[in-house]
C-alpha cells in the first residue's frame, strides 16, 4: 500500500486521528490474540494429550512465519498497486517513509495510479504501519485455521515450509481480489471481514491439505482416541477466539465509527444465537444432553457466518444468520452420509473446519447478499450502492449471484494452489510424520511433552 509524505518535525501530523489509530491497534491485538494464544489451547484441548504441544506449536509458528512474509512482500501483494486483476505487486513495507506515512485504501491507490474512480474512498487517519499490523494478524490467523484440519499427523518440517508458501500464493490472492482493489472488489462482492478471504479459504485449504497428508492413525480418530483431552482448556481458547472477534469484525471499517459499533454488536448477536440453535439441535438429537463441545462449535459457526456481513446487516438479520449458522453446519457435520461431507478415510478433517469454517463462511457470504442493508452498505466504502435481496429483487438477486461466483473462485483457487504447494513440499520433505512419531506424539516430534508421564492419554 502506498503512503503519503510524513512530516518528520511532527510526532502527530495533522491527518492523524489518535482515536482511530488506537482502535485499529487494539483491533490488531485482539485479532493477533486469536491466532496465539487463542488457537493454541483451543486445539490442544480438543485433541489427545500427546498432541497438545504440537498443535500449539502449529498455531504459534503460523503467526510467527506470516510476519516476515507479510512485511517483506505479501502485504503489498494483498493491498498494494495492481499487478494482475487478482494480485498486487510484491514489495516491502518496512521503510520509515512507508510505515509513518498515511495509510490509503485500495480504491484511492487505483484512483491516483490509473484514474480509476469506480469506488470512492477516503484515507484511514492513521499510519500505514498500523494497517500492516492489522492485516498481518488476519493472515496469521487464517493459515493457523488451516492447521485445524491436519493436526495430529502433518510433519513439523512440512508445516514450516507450507505456511510462508500458502500465505504468499493463496491468502494474498483472496485478500487482493476481495479487499485490496482486485476484480471482485470492483465487481461489488461483499466480504466485510473475511467470510471468504479467511474462513472459506482456510476451510477449503485445510480439507485439501488433509487429503494430501492423509488421515490420522485409526486409534487417534475413533473410540477413546477421538475424545478431547481437556475441555476447560478448550473453553479458555474458545473464549479468546470469541472476544477477539470484536477486533476481527470491529476493525474492518478502518475507523472507530458507527459502522464499527454495528459490526461488533451484530457479531455477538449472531454468535449467541448460533450457540443456542446448535445446542437445541444437540438436545433434540441426543434426547436432552447439551454438548459443551457442540456449543463451542455453534459459537464458531456463528462468528464465521456473520463475518462477511457484520457491518452490512441489521440486528434482526444477524439473529436470523445465527439461527442458520447453528443449524445448517450442525446438519452437515452430524447428519450427512458418513457423518461428514467427506469420508474420514479419504479426508480426515481433524477438527471439522470444513463445517465450522468453509460451510459457515459460504453460508454467511450468501446470506450477506440476501440481508445487506443499502444504508449500511453505503457506510462500507468498497460496496457502495449494493443491497441485499430483501431490499430489491433485481439488484439483490444480482448481489447473491456475485456472492456465489466469488465463493466459487475462492474455492477453486485454494484447492488448486494448496494442492500445488503440498506436491512441491513433499518433494523436499515428507508431508506426514513417521509411524513412530504418530504413535508417540509430542515427545517424538518436539522432545517435549505437555503433561509429564501421561502424554499418550
From TrEMBL:
Q: Which UniProt keywords apply?
A: Membrane, Transmembrane, Transmembrane helix
Gene3D superfamilies (alphabetical): Ammonium transporter AmtB like domains (1.10.3430.10)
Per UniProt, subcellular location reads as: Membrane
According to the record, the segments passing through the membrane are: 22-44, 51-73, 133-151, 158-176, 196-214, 230-248, 371-392, 404-429
Please name the GO terms that the record assigns under molecular function.
ammonium channel activity
Its membrane topology is listed as: Multi-pass membrane protein
- Domain Ammonium transporter AmtB-like, by residue range, is 22-451
Report whether Ligase shows up as a keyword of the record: no
Q: Which InterPro entries match?
A: Ammonium/urea_transptr, Ammonium_transpt, NH4_transpt_AmtB-like_dom
What is the annotated signal peptide range for this record?
none
A cellular-component GO term for this protein: plasma membrane
Do you know which Pfam families this protein is assigned to?
Ammonium_transp
Spell out the family assignment given in the record's similarity comment: Belongs to the ammonia transporter channel (TC 1.A.11.2) family.
Q: What is this protein called?
A: Ammonium transporter AmtB-like domain-containing protein
What's the source species for this entry? Paspalum notatum var. saurae
Amino acid at each position: 500500500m502506498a503512503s503519503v509524505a510524513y512530516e518528520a518535525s511532527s510526532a502527530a501530523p495533522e491527518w492523524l486521528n489518535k482515536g482511530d489509530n488506537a482502535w485499529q491497534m487494539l483491533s490488531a491485538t485482539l485479532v493477533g490474540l486469536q491466532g496465539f494464544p487463542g488457537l493454541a489451547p483451543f486445539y490442544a484441548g480438543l485433541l489427545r494429550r500427546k498432541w497438545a504441544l504440537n498443535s500449539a506449536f502449529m498455531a504459534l509458528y503460523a503467526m510467527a512465519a506470516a510476519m516476515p512474509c507479510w512485511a517483506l512482500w505479501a502485504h503489498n501483494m494483498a493491498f498494494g498497486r495492481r499487478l494482475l486483476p487478482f494480485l498486487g505487486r510484491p514489495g516491502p513495507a518496512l521503510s520509515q517513509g512507508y510505515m509513518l506515512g498515511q495509510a490509503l485504501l485500495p480504491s484511492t491507490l487505483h484512483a491516483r495510479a490509473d484514474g480509476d474512480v469506480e469506488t470512492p474512498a477516503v484515507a484511514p487517519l492513521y499510519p500505514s504501519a498500523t494497517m500492516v499490523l492489522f492485516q498481518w494478524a488476519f493472515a496469521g490467523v487464517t493459515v493457523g485455521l488451516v492447521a485445524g484440519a491436519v493436526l495430529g499427523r502433518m510433519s513439523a518440517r512440512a508445516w514450516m515450509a507450507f505456511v510462508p508458501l500458502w500465505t504468499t500464493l493463496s491468502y494474498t490472492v483472496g485478500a487482493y481480489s476481495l479487499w485490496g482493489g482486485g476484480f471482485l472488489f470492483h465487481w461489488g462482492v461483499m466480504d466485510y471481514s473475511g467470510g471468504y478471504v479467511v474462513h472459506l479459504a482456510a476451510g477449503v485449504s485445510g480439507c485439501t491439505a488433509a487429503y494430501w497428508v492423509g488421515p490420522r492413525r485409526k486409534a487417534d480418530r475413533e473410540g477413546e482416541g477421538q475424545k478431547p483431552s481437556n475441555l476447560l482448556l478448550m473453553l479458555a481458547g474458545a473464549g479468546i477466539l470469541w472476544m477477539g472477534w470484536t477486533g476481527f469484525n470491529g476493525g474492518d471499517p478502518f475507523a472507530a465509527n458507527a459502522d464499527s459499533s454495528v459490526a461488533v454488536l451484530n457479531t455477538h448477536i449472531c454468535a449467541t444465537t448460533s450457540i443456542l440453535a446448535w445446542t437445541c439441535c444437540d438436545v433434540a438429537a441426543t434426547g436432552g444432553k447439551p454438548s459443551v463441545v457442540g456449543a463451542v462449535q455453534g459459537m464458531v459457526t456463528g462468528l464465521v457466518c456473520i463475518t462477511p456481513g457484520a457491518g452490512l446487516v441489521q440486528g434482526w438479520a444477524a439473529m436470523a444468520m445465527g439461527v442458520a449458522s447453528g443449524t445448517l453446519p450442525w446438519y452437515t457435520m452430524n447428519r450427512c452420509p458418513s457423518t461428514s461431507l467427506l469420508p474420514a478415510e479419504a479426508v480426515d478433517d481433524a477438527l471439522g473446519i470444513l463445517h465450522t469454517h468453509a460451510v459457515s463462511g459460504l453460508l454467511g457470504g450468501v446470506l450477506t447478499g440476501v440481508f445487506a442493508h443499502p444504508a449500511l452498505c453505503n457506510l462500507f466504502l468498497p460496496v457502495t450502492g449494493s443491497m441485499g435481496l430483501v431490499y430489491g429483487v433485481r439488484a439483490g438477486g444480482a448481489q447473491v449471484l456475485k456472492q456465489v461466483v466469488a465463493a466459487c473462485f475462492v474455492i477453486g483457487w485454494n484447492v488448486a494452489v494448496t494442492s500445488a504447494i503440498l506436491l512441491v513440499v513433499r518433494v523436499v520433505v515428507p508431508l506426514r510424520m513417521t509411524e513412530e512419531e504418530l504413535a508417540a506424539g509430542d515427545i517424538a516430534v518436539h522432545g517435549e511433552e505437555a503433561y509429564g508421564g501421561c502424554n499418550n492419554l
